[in-house]
Amino acid sequence: MVPTRFKAFRIFDDETGHRSEVVEQGVDEQTAGDVVIQVAWSSVNYKDALAGTGKGKILRQFPLNGGIDVAGVVAQSESADFREGDEVLMTGCGLSETRDGGYSEYLRVPSEWLIPLPQGLDLREAMALGTAGFTAALGLYRMEANGQTPDMGPLCVTGASGGVGSLAVDIYSKAGYEVCALSGKSEEFGWLHELGAEQCVDRHGLEWPSAPMASARFAGALDNVGGEGLSGLTRMIKPWGSIASCGMAGGIDLNTTVMPFIIRGISLIGINSAGCRYSIRSEVWQRLAGDWKPRHLDKIVTAVSELDGLPDCFERLLSGGGHGRTLVRIGADAAA
Ligand SMILES: NC(=O)c1ccc[n+]([C@@H]2O[C@H](COP(=O)([O-])OP(=O)(O)OC[C@H]3O[C@@H](n4cnc5c(N)ncnc54)[C@H](OP(=O)(O)O)[C@@H]3O)[C@@H](O)[C@H]2O)c1
User: Fold this and answer.
1) I want to staple 117 with a disulfide (CB 3.0 to 4.6 A). Which of 73, 87, 173, 244 is the partner?
2) pLDDT at position 333 over 80
3) Per-residue pLDDT tens for 24-61?
4) Which of 105, 123, 91, 116 is CA-nearest to residue 38?
């Protein structure tokens, strides 16, 4: 039974300006869909913090519920593919961009984007991964499709202490890669080693090369930061290696030359988790529940928030003060 009123964290931008708050709403006030989920868990990603604070243009319409990730149990379905009681998850796919997102006790969504919870994950683990884990895994999926293998040498992960970064360290090391974690938080190097990093490098002490090609130190990379870091990486990748570019925490510029591309044959691969097509999405989630399931999810989840604690989580994440992943407990006990 879906209650007539329930709690949701809603983002507004109207005559009084940008604001977000916990409101009471009914499912009929939400964007369209043929399945209603009783939400158990969501999570906090960089994009959620941008959306919730208004510091980034994430929402394409207002108001909407925040939360680009959701996991829960089907409470009502008009879809032939899902039945009441099914455990499901959804990441990206317009959540908190063009449709209401997962920070809501109940959420109406189109079933075409729902992923049945893969065997090997529970709802909490699915959201410990969330968009961050899916993005890290999609980066590896795309690099391997482009020929990356562990015997080519180490993979560099930038922004390694963040959500995507820490999950990438865990997943890539489990997949057999030597991982070099690049981080601005030297106090977290011990933690990054525990997650699987063989080397940790302080980005504050790093001088990125300016020559079109420098000594090739890494066989590939997942880049969360963009700007100077990504520009520098293109100059340091070994022949035939790939860089999966997913983030812009350090800037959106890319200053490089064609030299590493045409002399070393390196590749720059764009990662767009939100718009990933269903067949790949489904395959990557199966990997995340199987051979790529991180070994240290409990160490990577460093905080759990309720809906009303979200504004503090957003500020902490944007100020660079946290590390790992923050889960959002919504109806976890009720949906269990
Ligand atoms: N393309 C996609 O589909 C996709 C999906 C998910 C996320 N993203 C993007 O990926 C990035 C990471 O997301 P997230 O959720 O993991 O965020 P996060 O938890 O905040 O992690 C970002 C990390 O980047 C590093 N960083 C922050 N400011 C920096 C700066 N000025 N220069 C260099 N490094 C900086 C920090 O790590 P250290 O202190 O360890 O260096 C920080 O922990 C974001 O840009 C996000 O928008 C993209």
Assistant:
1) 87
2) no
3) 999 999 999 999 999 999 999 999 999 999 999 999 99
4) 105
What is the signed CA dihedral for 57, 60, 61, 62, rounded to 10 degrees? Answer: -20
Whether the CB-CB separation of 136 and 167 falls below 8 Å is answered with: yes
| Pocket-testing residue among 46, 183, 254, ligand 1, by greatest number of atoms within 8 A of Cβ | 46
| Separation of alpha carbons 77 and 309, rounded Å | 30
Give yes or no for residue 47 CB within 6 A of ligand 1.
yes
Q: Which of 224, 313, 315 to mutate to test the pocket of ligand 1 (most atoms within 8 A of CB)?
A: 224
At residue 205, the pLDDT reads 85
Which atom in ligand 1 lies closest to the alpha carbon of residue 159? 37
pLDDT of residue 9: 98
Model confidence pTM above 0.85: yes
Place of tokens 């905080």: 303
Q: Where are the beta strands (DSSP E) in 224-298?
A: 237-245, 267-270
Residue nearest to atom 9 of ligand 1 (CA): 247
- Coil/strand/helix, residue 10: strand
Ligand 1 center from residue 48 Cα (angstroms): 12
Structure tokens, 195: 């997650």
Which domains does the chain possess?
A: 6-117+306-335 (3.90.180.10), 131-270 (3.40.50.720)
Helix (H, G, I), strand (E, B) or coil at 277: coil
Cis amide leading into 260 (omega within 30): no
What percentage of the chain carries pLDDT values higher than 70?
Answer: 99
Who's near 336: CB < 8 A, 6+ residues apart?
40, 123
Task: Name residue 221's beta-bridge partners.
Answer: 156, 243
pLDDT digits (tens, 9 = 90+) for 5-30: 999 999 999 999 999 999 999 999 99
- Atom 19 in ligand 1: residue holding the nearest Cα: 162
- The count of C-alpha atoms lying within 13 angstroms of the C-alpha of 195, restricted to the half-sphere facing its C-beta, is 34
